[in-house]
Recover the amino acids of this structure.
């Protein structure tokens, strides 16, 4: 793995990996982390593990995370399917 990338995994059993993914890919979080990275002193934008550790999460209980995950995954699948149909129709 490149030294420029760091895999993330939940630190606690109170968060699902999918919940962490959806949370960290929200535009507000991406923009916030991007701003932190742009302030880094390295040759390219970067964020330190300590920057990620300071991100606070307001998490619902695990059963609710599971339900939210199912809903978001179903929506992602529907979007992907619609995109595939649109690309096929445009061809």
């Amino acid at each position: 793995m490149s030294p420029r990338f760091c895999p993330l995994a939940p630190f606690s059993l109170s968060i699902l990996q999918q919940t962490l993914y959806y949370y960290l890919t929200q535009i507000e979080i991406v923009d916030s982390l991007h701003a932190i990275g742009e302030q880094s002193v390295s040759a390219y934008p970067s964020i330190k593990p300590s920057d990620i550790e300071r991100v606070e999460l307001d998490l619902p209980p695990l059963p609710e995370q599971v339900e939210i995950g199912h809903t978001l995954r179903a929506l992602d699948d529907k979007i992907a399917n619609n995109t595939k149909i649109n690309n096929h129709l445009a061809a």
User: Anything to note?
Assistant: Helices lie at 17-24, 27-38, 49-53, 62-90. The chain has two domains: 16-59, 60-91.
